[in-house]
Amino acid sequence: MKIRLIPAALALVASAAFGDALPGPVAQALARAGLPQASAALYVQEVDASRPTASFNASRPMNPASVMKLVTTFAALELLGPTYTWKTEAYPLGRLQDGVLDGDLLLKGYGDPRLTIEHFWLFLRSLRARGVREIRGDLVLDRSYFDVADHDPAKFDGEGLRAYNVGADALLVNYKAVRFFFLPNANAQGVAVVPEPQLAQLEVASSVRLTDGPCGDWRAGLRYDLQQKSAAVRASFSGSMPASCGERVWNLAPLPHDQYAYGVFKALWTELGGTLHGGLRDGRAPAGATPLASYESPGAAEVLRDMNKFSNNVMARQVFLTLSAETLKLPGRYDRSQRAVQSWLAERKLEIPDLAIENGSGLSRSDRITAEGLGRLLVAAYRSPVMPEFIATLPLVAFDGTMKKRLATDGVAGQAHIKTGSLADVRSMAGYVLDRKGRRFAVVFLVNHQNAGASQGAQDALLRWVHESAR
After folding, report:
1. CA separation for the pair 455, 185 (Å, rounded)
2. Domains 7-83+301-467 and 87-151+257-297 share a fold
3. Is 147 within 8 Å of 167 (Cβ atoms)?
4. What is the largest CA-CA distance in the chain?
5. Please, are residues 184 and 210 in contact by the beta-carbon 8 Å criterion?
6. Yes or no: is domain 87-151+257-297 CATH 3.40.50.720?
7. Do 252 and 161 touch, CB atoms closer than 8 A?
8. Contact indicator for 158, 245 with CB cutoff of 8 Å
9. Are 140 and 107 in contact (CB under 8 A)?
C-alpha cells in the first residue's frame, strides 16, 4: 500500500532543525519504500556545532550492524595509536646448523588482522634468508595472545563456511579463507573448481555442469559438501552454473585456524625450497627467548582502512581483541575488550548510553547503540588528533569500498565519507558529509525492520539533503 503525505505532514517533517522529525526527502523515501518511520533513527550535527541539525528517534537503542566498527576504529586509533603494528614471530626449538633445524619451529601470533598470503610469504622468506632450510620436527603454533572460546561460525546465521563468519585467532593467516575459482570449460560442458591457496589437506572435486541462460544469481544452482577425515577435508561441488557467468570466485572457510595455518605454511615453505618433516601442535614460546625472524604489519591506520573500506568482520574482531590484550596486558578476550572500550569512553567523558558491543565487528544480534550516541562519537572523532586517520578509513561515496557504486552521478559523489552496515533486518550508515557551503556534518541513519533492505533510497536522500545545505 502506498502512503501519501498531505502538505501539512510534509511541512512538519521538513522542519527538522533541532526537532524530533525526519527531513522531508527522507520521510518521503521511507514512505515510498513502505517502511514505517518508527523503524528509523537519524542524527545529523555540524562538527563545529553544539546542537544537532536533525534528530529523529535518536535516543532509541538500535542494532547498528557494521557501523559498530566505527566504535572499534576510534578506540583503536586512540588506545593503540595510528602507527601501532602487530607482530608475528618465529622461534627455533632445537639446534640450527647448516640449514637444518634439528627440532621444531614455533610461530607466535599477536593478532595481526591482515597477515595475508603475501605478507606471510615475506615472513617465511625472511626465515629462509636466516639459514633455515629443513625442519626435522613439528610446526608449533603459539596462539595464546588471544583467549577466545571455541567459535561456532554457524551460530550467527547457519552459514558456518562463509568467510564473513570466520572467528578471531592470534595467528590469523589470510583471513582463514580459501578462494574457490570456478572455471567454465565450454568444450567439456563442465566447470573446474580450483582452490587458492592450494592446501595439502584440502581435496576438491567438481561435477558442476554448464547451462544456458543469463548469469543472475550464479551460486543459486550450486551445491557444496564438506567431509572431514582427521585433518583432511574433501570439498565437493555439484549442480549447475550458467556459461554466461564466465570465471567466478567463491570465498569459503573449510578448515580450522590451526590446520589452515599449517597448510599455508607447508605450501609456501615448499615453494621457497624448504622442507618440513613433522606435523602440527600447539605450544608456547620460550620465556625470554629472542625470535629468529619477525614480521611487523603495516601501521594501524592502514590496517583500519582495509577493515572499514571493505567491512571485514574478522579484521574487526582481531582489532577489538587487541584493545584488551594491549591495554590490560592480558590475553585478548571479548568481555575484557568491552570493558576497555567503556573505560576509554568514560575517561574521554563521551556519553554513549545503552551501548552494547559484542565483538567489535557489528556482526551481532545483541549489539545496540543510539543514533545520537554514534553521532556524538563521530563529532568527538572529528575533534580528535587522530581525525585524519579516522576519516581516511571510511569509504568515499562513489569512489571506493562499500560505497563505490552508490550515487556516482550525484552531487554528493566524492563529498562524503560513509561507513555502511547490513544485516538481514538492518541497514545503516554513518560518517561525514561536506555540504555545498564547505561545512562538514556528522551523519547517522539506522533502520531496523524486516524490510530494511528497501531503505537505501532514504539513506541516499539523507546524504543529498545534507550535501545541499541541511536546514
Report:
1. 40
2. no
3. no
4. 86
5. yes
6. no
7. yes
8. no
9. yes
Cell numbers representing residue 204 in the block: 576438491
Residue 256 is given by DSSP the state: -
Query: What are the grid coordinates assigned to 11, written together?
Result: 511541512
| Residue 367 · residue 392 · CB < 8 Å | no
> What are the 10-residue block averages of pLDDT along the chain, 471 residues in total?
37 43 94 96 96 96 98 98 98 95 98 97 96 97 93 80 90 96 86 93 93 91 86 90 94 92 96 95 94 97 97 97 97 97 97 95 96 98 98 96 91 95 96 96 98 96 90 59
Which of 9, 7, 26 lies closest to 447 in space, CA to CA? 26
SS (H, E, C) 200-249: CCEEEEECCEEECCCCCCCCCCEEEEEEEECCEEEEEEEEEEEHHHCCEE
DSSP summary character for residue 62:
B
Angle separating helix axes 334-348 and 69-79, nearest 10 degrees: 70
Provide DSSP, 165-205.
GPPP-TT--GGG-EEEEEEEETTTTEEEEEEES--TTEEEE
What is the distance between the alpha carbons of residues 134 and 270, in angstroms, rounded to a whole number?
10
Q: How far apart are CA 299 and CA 133, in angstroms?
A: 30
**Vertex 245, ends 242 and 251: CA angle to 5°?**
105
Q: Closest Cα to residue 91, out of 246, 342, 293, 265?
A: 293
Q: Is residue 199 within 8 Å of residue 254, measured between CB atoms?
A: no
DSSP-derived pairing of the beta strands 190-196 and 178-185: antiparallel
152/132 Cα distance (integer angstroms): 37
Give the Cα separation of 197 and 263 in Å (integer). 9
CB atoms within 10 A of CB 289: 13
Class of domain 7-83+301-467 (CATH, top level): alpha beta
Domain coordinates in residue numbering, the chain: 7-83+301-467, 87-151+257-297, 178-252
d(CA 26, CA 18): 16
50 three-class SS: coil
Note whether 14 and 468 are within 8 A (CB). no
Q: Which DSSP helix (H) or strand (E) runs through 295? A: strand 293-296
Residue whose entry in the numeric block shows the C-alpha cell 550458467: 242
Q: How far is CA 305 from CA 203, 265, 299, 330, 335, in A?
A: 35, 27, 10, 26, 25
The predicted structure's pLDDT at residue 109: 98
Q: Per the confidence metrics, is the pTM higher than 0.90? A: yes
Helix, coil or strand: residue 101 = strand
Sign of CA dihedral 416, 421, 426, 431: negative
Backbone angles phi, psi at 358, to 5 degrees: -85, -55
